[in-house]
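Q: What would this chain look like folded?
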Amino acid sequence: RSRAPFVVGVQLHSALQTFVSRICSPIDNVVVSITKLHAGSAQNVIAHDAKLTEFIRTTSPEMRDMVERRVTEICAGHAASFGVEIEVDYQRNYPCTVNHEKETEILARSAREIVGAASVNTTAPVRIGSEDFSFMLEACPGAYICSLYNTDAADEGDSRQFSGRRNIQKKKDN
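A: My prediction, written as structure tokens:
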């Protein structure tokens, strides 16, 4: 008898893709996306197994813990419901890049001195992106900024364009 892993995968996909909207506040910044569902290799053979891959982003360790717990619980519930085994290989890869308030203000103040207050935006919405510096920000207070460099202005000799290198040099000189 077949346990129809693809059917289980589709049901699990739906449960994992939608649980965030039922238990998290929109301001929690939690995203769970099922990015792959693979089962079988022939159109006339029921697959022996299925594999789902998901992409998870949160902006706090508490939400990361909650999401990991819920993913594991949902998988266990579906395994029991369908009479199958579901192996969860939950990997915490890159965390989101989340700045610390004090360090962000220090960097913003310096940027305002260089490019003027009108060119510095400290009210941008939280983005759920990540990069290597995310690990540093989890380990110690700091801030990561996005520096937009306008090449047209640079060609015209506008020395007010902000660059991190100039900011660091200015701090060294003081």
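Helices lie at 5-23, 61-82, 101-115, 133-139, 151-155, 164-173.
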